Amino acid sequence: MKKIPIQGEYMTLGQLLKSLDVIASGGEAKIFLQSYQVFVNGEPDDRRGRKLYPLDEVEIEGFGKIYLV
Fold it and tell me: What fold does the segment set 2-68 form as a domain?
């Protein structure tokens, strides 16, 4: 499980995908989220603008779990 620090109060799911180098630009987030299952705290989510906070857990199909700190 990777631990990713959040700079500020929160980060969006699209920002997380970009910081993990899963996508090259924010515009690719929508397409990626339509192609891969993403779970936030165990629940499916496909909103690139989903706000993620410290202690959230994100699981990305094919990429594993990420824990936000």
Answer: 3.10.290
Domain boundaries, the chain: 2-68
Interacting residues of 15 by C-beta distance below 8 A, sequence separation 6+: 26
- Helix, strand, or coil (residue 61): coil
* Residue 5 to residue 21: CA distance in whole angstroms: 15
- Spell out the per-residue pLDDT of the chain, length 69, in tens: 899 999 999 999 999 999 999 999 888 999 999 999 999 999 999 999 999 999 999 999 999 999 999
d(CA 4, CA 16): 9
